[in-house]
Design a protein that fits this description.
The protein is of the alpha/beta class. 60% of the residues lie in helices and 14% in strands. Helix 15 (479-496) packs antiparallel against helix 17.
Length: 845
């Protein structure tokens, strides 16, 4: 590949030699100026010092200080005269006084007065003068009488006068030494500055020589740089394309030739958009180039890696990863693009997405399979267990009763295994619902102890429980999940302990910001081997040690218990040594509460139910007969339908108190039949409908409620479960909502219980938003009756899920008016919706 020359758009890199030369010149100039400034400064200092040395002030000061002692001695000589010449005495004192005053006040003595010793001596002499002045100024008689006192004062101050003269000499000697040292230092600095200037000039000469050498090698280095750059571009696995500001290609690397199928010779000088941009992106490319030329705005340049589509020479469009940078050359701005073909990577990503979709589809298929198998297994179980339930109400011989109990035990065990598998599936799919309510912890534990007492007695095992610390009977947790876990742990302990003891200990403690419940189940059984203890909570672990050799089991009980405890944000574990028994424990967060009427009780008194008129829609003859006989045995009137279509017809023509609706049926399924019953104007349009199904998956239960059903009865159906559902229906009839009620509170509570608090809140928020949009749609589209009817029908179905009776009734009236062509009534009905919507959401909260 030919080297990238300047006329081909080669990148204009900053020349290092030019930069170094400019830096060298700048440095030389600054160094010269600095040296010159230093020399001038030092010359000024030398001149100043010479002027100071030439000054005569110091000689005058020294003479004045020496003269003080002469004048003092003259004063002292007159004091010793015989007789004392008072006039000469006063004159010598005044001369000495004037001399000291000059030393104290004159500016020439300012330096000497700054010395501490000199200043102290001067102050002593001034005190002497102050004490002597009154005597000197007295009349001649008094002066003669006080001459001895003046002599004493003069003798005491004489050393200070001599010290003053001597101190002055010392001070000026020191000042002379300092001045000489300053001159010497200045001269040394001047010499150093001159040496530095000479050295700088030498370095500048050397640097200039270096620059000349660098410039002489410049052309050779540029050629070498071009060769290296071309080598990098030529061997790069990514394609490199360089274009000018108008989009004309000025460089096309070998990798780009391979990627696009064009030769470099054919594309140089051509527009890049015509070469690599697919037709459907060409207009956008041209607009972007024009925008950069006119406004300088760049959307892709300098933005890192971007994914785009490109076109090969044969017309194939393929994905590329592209990074573009711009640079300025002597010929103007150019753009350098580094790109790679990512077809293989995109294909691999597509394969990963497809694999993920297949995995999700497989997971969905597994869920659907489990739902189907649940239905298929629970449906015959419903017939078996239901008939056994009915058979217990007949006259049986002791052997028949025993056989029946054995059959029922086996059927319940099979149902437990099916439920275990479904619980694991729900947890692993993230659909396990946790409902925290107030519950009586003491009653729950006592019920578990009572249920296991019979087996414990058979094994000769003592079973008891108690509190560790103060009892806390009422707590807030999920009673169903907690009961399942404790039942499993206590059942295992009783099952594996023979002729021993099982103790359950309950404690509630405060730990940090909240309260925690800890339950320990201790047994005197054979214990666990070390390897089994580490994996006892895994799926299908039963082992073959002494702990589990004498009993059966699927190995799912503890695995499900661990999942439930984890879902409750708790921990579960076991402490055990072979031959020394086991202590299984759980530790979960709870909340202390006080008893209130809405709390979960573990024991309920039977309720007497008034006879009801019930429609049973079930395609399986055995199940239909079982349900019919159970209902008739309880005194209810029963009408049968073999499929959803028959059930819909019967519900349209007759007002029933309750409809039990199977889900999977031929001709018409139960969900479709329910929707048609709710949307029709039949006699049972507002009758409560309970799903009768073997499908226990949470998503399906939510779907049943959205279709208009009011609850779910799970197969296999027992008389107790059926009685409880009918008792709830009887209470609903007795406490039916008034026409002035906004919501059916009983229905709403059941919906909340089925959905769970989190799902309920999410769906309520979505219902609020959907209803607001629906009201806006009805207000804007009141002129289209068909659209109004369809929208009102949809909204009424959503309102029914939450028991929003007032809102549902108004929407039904709007739907009826729209279908019948009564457009005059629509505006008034629609106008009431905003207030109903607001009141409904407030009541649902």
């Amino acid at each position: 590949m030919a080297p990238i020359m300047p006329d081909q758009g080669r990148l204009a890199l900053p020349d290092a030699a030019d930069q170094r030369a400019a830096a060298g010149r700048t440095f030389a100039v600054l160094a010269g100026l600095l040296a010159l400034g230093a020399i001038l400064f030092l010359a000024f200092n030398v001149s100043r010092e010479i002027r100071l040395l030439g000054s005569a002030n110091s000689d005058n000061v020294q003479w004045s200080l020496a003269q003080t002692e002469v004048e003092f001695l003259e004063y002292r000589r007159h004091l010793n005269g015989e007789p004392v010449n008072l006039s000469a005495l006063r004159r010598s004192f005044d001369v000495f006084y004037s001399r000291m005053d000059t030393i104290s006040q004159a500016s020439v003595f300012e330096t000497t007065r700054a010395d501490v010793g000199f200043s102290d001596t001067l102050r002593d002499i001034q005190l002497f003068l102050t004490a002597s002045v009154p005597i000197i100024d007295a009349d001649d008689a008094d002066l003669r009488l006080q001459v001895p006192e003046l002599i004493a004062l003069a003798d005491s101050i004489r050393p200070s006068v001599r010290g003053l003269a001597t101190a002055g000499l010392d001070i000026f000697a020191r000042e002379s030494d300092v001045q000489r040292e300053a001159v010497a230092r200045t001269m040394s600095q001047l010499a150093f500055a001159l040496s530095l200037l000479i050295g700088t000039l030498g370095l500048a000469i050397f640097y200039l020589y270096r620059l000349i050498t660098i410039v002489s090698r410049r052309e050779a280095q540029q050629k070498q740089t071009a060769v290296r750059l071309n080598t990098v571009i030529g061997t790069s696995l990514d394609g490199v394309i360089v274009s000018d500001a108008r989009g004309r290609i000025i460089e096309f690397s070998p990798a780009a030739e391979v990627i696009f199928g064009h030769s470099r010779h054919d594309v140089i000088g051509r527009d890049i958009g015509q070469i690599m941009v697919p037709p459907h992106l060409r207009d956008a490319h041209d607009a972007g180039m024009e925008r950069m030329r006119t406004t300088g705005e760049k959307h892709v340049v300098g933005k890192g890696r971007v994914k785009l589509e490109a076109q090969r020479a044969n017309g194939d469009v393929f994905p590329i990863e592209l990074a573009i940078q711009s640079a300025t050359t002597d010929s103007g701005e150019i753009y350098i693009a580094f790109l790679r073909d990512i077809s293989a990577r995109v294909a691999a990503e597509a394969e990963l997405v497809a694999a993920r979709d297949r995995a999700l589809a497989g997971e969905k298929l597994k869920t659907e399979f489990l739902a189907t198998m649940s239905h298929e297994i629970r449906t015959p179980l419903n017939g078996i267990l239901g008939n056994m339930d009915l058979l217990q109400n007949t006259t049986l011989t002791p052997d028949q009763a025993r056989y029946l109990r054995h059959m029922e035990t086996s059927g319940r065990l099979l149902l437990t295994h099916v439920s275990d598998v479904l619980d694991i599936t729900r947890y692993d799919a993230g659909k396990l619902n946790i409902q925290r309510v107030a519950m009586n912890l003491g009653d729950l534990v006592q019920d578990i102890i009572d249920s296991q007492s019979s087996m414990a007695a058979q094994n000769g095992t003592a079973l008891d429980w108690g509190w560790d610390g103060l009892p806390q009977v009422w707590v807030e947790s999920d009673p169903d999940r907690l009961q399942h876990v404790l039942m499993n742990l206590v059942g295992n302990a009783v099952k594996f302990t023979r002729q021993g003891k099982v103790s359950l200990t309950v404690s509630v403690r405060t730990d940090g910001p909240g309260d925690r419940l800890r339950v320990e189940i201790e047994d005197t059984g054979p214990g666990l081997a070390a390897d089994l203890k580490d994996r006892v909570f895994d799926d299908f672990v039963t082992g073959n040690t002494a702990y589990d050799r004498d009993v059966g089991g699927t190995g799912l009980g503890l695995a499900i218990a661990k999942r439930f405890v984890t879902a409750l944000d708790g921990q579960i574990g076991v402490d055990s040594e072979p031959g020394q028994g086991c202590t299984f424990w759980i530790d979960i967060p709870i909340k202390r509460v006080t008893h209130h009427p809405g709390a979960v009780e573990t024991k309920r008194s039977p309720t007497k139910i008034a006879p009801l008129d019930i429609l049973v829609v079930e395609d399986n003859e055995i199940n239909r007969i079982v349900v019919r006989d159970m209902l008739q045995a309880a005194g209810h009137r029963v009408t049968e339908a073999h499929d959803g279509q028959q059930g819909m017809i019967k519900a349209h023509s007759h007002a029933y108190d309750l409809i039990l609706m199977d889900i999977s049926m031929p001709v018409m399924d139960g969900r479709t039949a329910t929707r048609l019953i709710r949307t029709g104007q039949g006699a049972s349009a507002n009758t409560r409908i309970l799903a009768l199904t073997a499908n226990v998956l949470q998503d399906e239960r939510v779907a049943f409620l959205e279709d208009g059903m009011d609850g779910v009865l799970t197969k296999p159906l027992t008389q107790a479960a059926l009685h409880a559902a009918l008792a709830k229906e009887d209470r609903a009839e007795k406490t039916a909502p008034r026409s002035t009620d906004v919501i059916d509170s009983q229905h709403n509570r059941e919906t909340r219980d089925v959905l769970g608090a989190d799902t309920y809140d999410m769906m309520r928020s979505r219902f609020d938003a959907d209803m607001g949009a629906l009201i806006a749609e009805l207000t804007d589209g009141a002129d289209d009756p068909a659209a109004v009817a369809a929208a009102a029908h949809k909204g009424a179905g959503s309102a029914a899920v939450f028991g929003a009776i007032a809102l549902r009734e108004t929407l039904k009236q709007i739907e009826t008016a729209a279908k019948s062509g009564d457009t005059a009534a629509l505006p008034g009905l629609i106008a009431t919706l905003p207030d109903l919507h607001r009141d409904t959401i407030a009541a649902l909260a």
